[in-house]
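Researcher: Can you fold this with S-adenosylmethionine in place?
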Amino acid sequence: MADLFDKYDKPAPRYTSYPTVPYWDNAPTTPEWTDSLNRAFEDPKSPWSLYVHIPFCESLCSYCACNTTITRKHDRYETPYVDCVLSEWESYKKAVPALVSRPLKNIHLGGGTPTFLTPDNLGRMLNGILSTVQIDKDDFEGSIEVHPNYTTEAHLKLLREFGFNRISIGVQDFNLKVQKLVNRIQPFDTTRTTLQTARDLGFVSANFDLIYGLPGQGQAEMTHTMDKTLELWPDRIALYSLAIVPWIKPAQRHFKDEDLPEAKEKRALYDYAKTRLLDAGYVEIGMDHFALPKDDLLRAMNETRLHRNFMGYTDQKTDVLLGLGVSSISASPDCFHQNQKILTLYETQAQEGKIPTMRGHKLSEQDIIVQGQILELMTRFKITFSDKKKEKTVRERLKPMIEDGLVYFEEDTLKITETGKSFLRVVCTALDERLISAKPQSLTFSKAI
Ligand SMILES: C[S@@+](CC[C@H](N)C(=O)[O-])C[C@H]1O[C@@H](n2cnc3c(N)ncnc32)[C@H](O)[C@@H]1O
């Protein structure tokens, strides 16, 4: 097994989109983008999902690879940012009038720390958007990423009033030693209180984000983190591999290399955590995710309805995902679109009443085919090829992984073995025509394992 990690622990995309962002090379203009949304909404029943990015955090967690603005200046940032998001929403309503009449199935608030906003500002933002749309009352999911240190009962109450029913709690690791090394001191009791308050208020599902491979994490630390996690029984657990991308996130240079577990040790931490979760009754969902048997995600997996988008695995597939806020990514059936990533640029363009386009990609026919194949592999751990030529090519590309017992073919179906599941990202690279035809020239992706 150790040799397999040496062989396959290479940089690989996480495939939350295809083509992956570095390969977007055919940007839509803003009108082309909104036309694509209008086409997607021709059917009055077509549902959609909404993502709003709130980038602010009061302090910098040094492992973090997300788009954040670190500040304590609530006065400077909160009100103008909410105004910008609402102004962006106004621009969308003008350009894509169907947004207000098609059923909204899902809203997700991500960050940063969405509860950096006071309940008043959060309420103003949510009201400004949600009071103007048709919420699919029979099947609506509202979810938010929270950092327990900055989440109050008032925040959670307000979110429940707007129909939020899922919460994702950032934990990462329960050991003080690790927490100090990553500049995120988060007492167990604070996490427990946030979870309990959410449950008491009627949130139906709580997720914990955990990370393996953090500085200072060894076997003893992972044992403690799993003991504490299993004391609280979150409904879902995302167990992420620490993505080390210091060329994008210079704060990650604050770790000393000697504090990081070595590749084999890092993988042993994952295997240990996975065993603990499976023994406790959790079920593995796709890549890096676990859920209790009663959870909707598991039902979706069993009914082959599991889907994956920019936010990871979900049981709610919609053709349109609209992203508001700085750096947010949106998707339609034939386009991707990303907002300006620099806060001042985003604010200026949103205030001017523009859709703050930074980049995007119009999917080619081949992109759409490969997108479907990668999605199938990521959500079902297998894929059936209808195209004989592609099947033959993929067989050839995967020859070493077939010989190593990580994947196998049953007639025209490629399947992943139990051991192979750890290498899912690497298997997907065999389908990724863009990566194969042009390897990135510079550091782009984090390592696969
Ligand atoms: C956008 S973050 C923010 C959530 C919330 N603000 C918090 O801090 O708890 C969402 C999740 O991404 C994951 N994450 C961030 N940086 C990561 C990295 N470098 N490698 C792996 N996972 C990462 C963390 O598990 C985190 O909880």
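Model: Folded with S-adenosylmethionine in place. The radius of gyration is 21 Å.
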